Amino acid sequence: MKRFIDKCFVMVSFFIVGLSFVFAGGLPFDPTEKSSQS
């Protein structure tokens, strides 16, 4: 059971990191548009 909890925690952590990247810098594969916007 603990292994399942650890796996869920890792997945959630990656999900939060991905969301923070999207909200902080728009789409990660389009940095030029973000820099020209700001």
Helix and strand topology:
Blueprint: H1 2-25, H2 31-37
What does this structure look like?
This protein has 38 residues and is mostly helical. It contains 2 helices and no strands. The radius of gyration is 15 Å and the shape is rod-shaped. The N and C termini lie far apart (47 Å). The mean pLDDT is 77.
DSSP strand (E) fraction?
A: under 5%
**Order of secondary-structure elements:** HH
Structure class: mainly alpha
* Low-pLDDT stretches: none
Indicate the mean pLDDT. Answer: 77
- The value of Rg in angstroms is 15 Å
Largest sheet: number of strands, sense, barrel closure:
none
Helix content: over 70%
Task: Give a brief rundown of this model.
This protein is 82% helix and 0% strand.
Q: Main traits of this protein?
A:
38 residues; mainly alpha; 0% strand
